[in-house]
Amino acid sequence: MADIPGVANQAEHTHISTALEVEKLEVNLFRSKTLWVPNRARGVFGGQVISQAIVSATNCVDKAYGLHSLQCYFLLSGSPAVPITYYVERLREGRSYTTRLVKAVQNGKLIFVLMCSFQKPEPYQPSHAWPLPSNVPNPEECELQETIYTREAMKEGVDERLKNIYKTIIEERMKSPIAWKPAKLHDVGPDGTITYMYWMSARNLGTEYGVPFQKCVVAYLSDLNFIGVGVRTLGLKRYGRGPGSVGMTSSLDHSIYFYDDNFDCGDWLLYVVTSPRSGSGRGVVQGRLYTRGGSLIAIMSQEGVMRADIRAPTEVKL
Description:
Layout (H helix, E strand, L loop, with lengths): L15 H5 L1 E5 L2 E4 L13 H13 L7 E9 L10 E9 L3 E10 L2 E11 L25 H9 L6 H16 L2 E11 L5 E9 L8 H12 L5 H7 L11 E6 L1 E6 L10 E11 L2 E10 L4 E13 L10
Antiparallel strand pairs: 1-2, 2-4, 3-6, 3-10, 4-5, 5-6, 7-8, 8-11, 9-13, 10-13, 11-12, 12-13
Helix pairs in contact: 2-5, 3-4
Protein name: Acyl-CoA thioesterase II domain-containing protein
InterPro entries: ACOT8-like_C, Acyl-CoA_hotdog, Acyl_CoA_thio, HotDog_dom_sf, TesB_ACOT8-like_N
Pfam family, one: 4HBT_3
């Protein structure tokens, strides 16, 4: 990747284990160690809060059970200045399933809630899955996002404001624990459905991490630019002003369903994302995560605020 002024060529990658680490204070009580606010975000990265909540819940579950689903709501933006405390409630202990509720509190306020369910494996049951999309280039044929933005920033005629935005994105991507390669800018189906695809992997992930931690990594990466697909499907510009540009985005909820334990986040995973509906300042995105071998390992969905830069007659507080 070529150098551009103002961007470090060799930025140190923040390890994913650092981003997900929590401190156990006592039984059912945990606290964050690090918190990260993405560029132009309103608060702490939602994927990090989800992942830390899952780490906390997993520490309160018998190892015979594996995480299979989660549903969560973002209630308030998190601040990086104060640790988040995670309270785990043991709601159900069943023979096949066990359920946990996690409440994330910061400055005395409930900012996030997560309900997650764990299951004993039932490998003898029948199964089916949608296949990996066809004609997707291999990750080795795709470029890292920071490489793409570096090329854009070095083009002649790029104004200084946009170049500075690109520099910020490049630095953030280079430091991210998740490598990200767009597989296709977008794919339009016969019915007009727009699909976005990304290859994603955890940088420098060792072989010592088992399935429970790998699922926490999936939760982290699943929220990276997830709601942004809805914005692009609407055709809104990210860095402009006016009705054709983004006024605000914010995640409202997030869900994940796991269907395979045989995957490695240190290898490339294909994230296939669509946005079936948006309106009233909201939108839904849905994702499917595949191994490069074609196994569908997880299904995601999220609703979020997607507002164009339009001033309503009466401003309403979110």
